[in-house]
Design brief:
Blueprint lengths: L1 E5 L8 H14 L2 E6 L1 H8 L9 E5 L10 H7 L4 H10 L5 E4 L3 H11 L11 E5 L7 E3 L9 H18 L6 E5 L10 H11 L4 E6 L1 H5 L5 E3 L2 H26 L3 H9 L1 H11 L6 E5 L4 E5 L5 H16 L2 H11 L11
Parallel strand pairs: 1-2, 1-4, 2-3, 4-11, 6-9, 7-8, 7-9
Antiparallel strand pairs: 5-6, 5-10, 10-11
Length: 339
C-alpha cells in the first residue's frame, strides 16, 4: 500500500508524525509518503535508522494550522500538506491519507477541494472506535455539529458497513445515543430519526444511554457530531483523571505503594486498553478516498496506529463498500447532495 502521512499535522510536528511514519514503514513494509516541509522532514529522518525503509518525501510549502479558519484556509492554502497529500490519493498515486492536523481543515480540504463526497452521501462523518468492550464505533464524532434525521440514518449505514467490513462483526447492532432507552426519550432529532432507522433494514436495536454504550450494548452508536465529540472528549478526560487519581492514591502510604508495585502489570494492561493512542485515528467516512483523522496531541505511536487504521480501510475497500451501499439504498438518492 501507499499511505500518505501529513508530516505537518500534529501539535508537535513534524517529529511525532515522521517518527510514527518510520515505525509504520518498519512494521508493515508499505510505502509511506511524508508530505510537508521537506527540509524539516529530512532533519527528523536523519536522526532515525531508515535504511531500506520504503519512505518518500513530497514537499508542501504551506501548513493549515490549528488556529486557521478551515473554510478560508482550504481555499487560500492550496499548497498545504493536506491539499498535496489528498491530491495524491485523488490522482491514484496513494491509497490513503493520515493527518493529526486541524480536523476542520481536513474536512474542508477533503470535502470541498480534493476528494469530494461519494455520490449520494449527504454528509461525511467521523467514526471513532472506542477502546472499550467490543471496540464499538461512535459516529458522528465531530464532523457535523448540526444534523438532520436523514443524516443520522446515513451515519448509521456507513458506520455499520465499516464495522462489518473492517472489524468483521456480522450484522452490527446499531443504536441511537440518547438520554434514555425508551423511544419517547430524546430531543426532536432523535425522535424523528427513530422511524427512519426502524425501517432501514439495519440491525437497529433502539436507543442506548452512554453507560450502555460504554459496556458494549451496541456495535455502532449514532449521534450528531456535537454530541458525539463531547462524549468522546469526556470519556478521554475521565479515563485520564481516574488514572491520575489511582496513581496518587497508590502512593499515599507504604502499604498501598507495595500493593501498587505488585499490581503494576495489571494497571499497565488496563492503561493500554483505555489508551486512545491504541486506536490511532478516526476514519472520515463518506469522502471518495480513505482519510484518517488523528488527535492533534498524537504521539509517534498514535500516528503509527492511525496508519494501521488506514491500511485496514484500504484492505477492506471501505470506500467501495460505502459507494455500493449508498447506490443500493433508494433513500440515499432522495436528498440532493449539498456542498
Amino acid at each position: 500500500m501507499r499511505i500518505v502521512v501529513d508530516a505537518m499535522g500534529s501539535d508537535n510536528h513534524p517529529e511525532p508524525d515522521v517518527m510514527g511514519a518510520v515505525a509504520a514503514a518498519r512494521e508493515w513494509g508499505d510505502e509511506i509518503i511524508l508530505v510537508g516541509d521537506e527540509e524539516r522532514i529530512r532533519a527528523v529522518l536523519a536522526r532515525q535508522d531508515t535504511a531500506n525503509l520504503p519512505l518518500r518525501v513530497v514537499h508542501a510549502g504551506e501548513v493549515i494550522t490549528m488556529t486557521d479558519v478551515p473554510s478560508e484556509a482550504s481555499r487560500q492554502k492550496q499548497d498545504s500538506s493536506m491539499h498535496v497529500g489528498m491530491n495524491l490519493v485523488k490522482a491514484g498515486k496513494a491509497d490513503a491519507f493520515v493527518s493529526a492536523g486541524n480536523t476542520g481543515g481536513v474536512l474542508a480540504v477533503a470535502m470541498l477541494q480534493t476528494l469530494r463526497r461519494i455520490r449520494g452521501i449527504k454528509r461525511p462523518a467521523l467514526g471513532v472506535l472506542f477502546p472499550i468492550k467490543g471496540n464499538p464505533m461512535l459516529i458522528d464524532n465531530g464532523a457535523n455539529a448540526d444534523a438532520r434525521p436523514e443524516f443520522l440514518l446515513q451515519f448509521a449505514q456507513i458506520g455499520s458497513l465499516y464495522v462489518e467490513r473492517v472489524r468483521g462483526v456480522p450484522n452490527p447492532r446499531v443504536a441511537l445515543l440518547s438520554n434514555g432507552e425508551e423511544e419517547g426519550k430524546g430531543n426532536e432529532l432523535i425522535k424523528e430519526t427513530i422511524p427512519l432507522l426502524a425501517g432501514s433494514g439495519l440491525n437497529y436495536i433502539g436507543n442506548v444511554e452512554p453507560k450502555e454504550f460504554i459496556f458494549g450494548a451496541a456495535d455502532v452508536a449514532v449521534a450528531d457530531g456535537f454530541t458525539g465529540n463531547i462524549i468522546m472528549k469526556t470519556a478521554e478526560a475521565i479515563a485520564s483523571y481516574m488514572s491520575e487519581t489511582i496513581r496518587e492514591e497508590i502512593k499515599a502510604n507504604p502499604l498501598t505503594t507495595l500493593g501498587g508495585l505488585l499490581a503494576r502489570p495489571a494497571f499497565a494492561r488496563v492503561r493500554r486498553r483505555l489508551d486512545p493512542d491504541e486506536v490511532g485515528g478516526a476514519p472520515l467516512l463518506g469522502v471518495d478516498g480513505v482519510v484518517i483523522v488523528a488527535h492533534g496531541r498524537s504521539s509517534a505511536y498514535a500516528i503509527k496506529q492511525a496508519v494501521g487504521q488506514a491500511r485496514q480501510a484500504v484492505a477492506h475497500d471501505i470506500v467501495g463498500a460505502i459507494r455500493a451501499g449508498v447506490a443500493a439504498n433508494p433513500s440515499s438518492e432522495k436528498v440532493e447532495i449539498q456542498q
